[in-house]
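JOB MANIFEST
job_type = single_chain_structure
chain_count = 1
residues = 131
[input]
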Amino acid sequence: VQLQAYGGGLVQPGGSLNLSCEVSGLRLEYYSIGWFRQGPGKEREGVLCISPSNNNLYYEESVKGRFTISRANAENTVWVYLQMSNLKPEDTAVYYCATHPRPTCPEMPIATLLPHAYDSWGQGTQVTVSS
């Protein structure tokens, strides 16, 4: 499985930005796809996940009502989109997409363990929210 993230950039507080993740590989209909982020000096944290049946799971409470995730399937490729609005400086981070090889978004009792549930990662795209 290969992942490529697109769409990062510089945006002012209150602005919007859309990220895309192209996922290619076999049997993608069985994979859940998650978005993570890692801010300066912080650990990588989960943001949102979407299952093959389009069930969403928010990992980060602070993005509820501002971020949405969607998914479009094509032959051997899945596109996963992260629509971000009302962005805040604390949203500044490198954003990564990753795959979980099960049709249900994973949950972990300890948040720092969540990245270990995902097995393939994209290279990340920088999002900077600043005036």
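[summary]
The mean pLDDT is 94.
The two ends are 37 Å apart (CA to CA).
exit_status = 0
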